[in-house]
Amino acid sequence: YPIAFGMLGLAGINRKNFVLSSSIAIFGRFVMHFLSGIIFFADSAGDQHVVLYSLGYNGTYLVAEYVICIVIAMLPPMKDLVNRLQRTADLEMNR
Question: 53 is in which domain, residue-wise?
Answer without folding.
Answer: 2-93
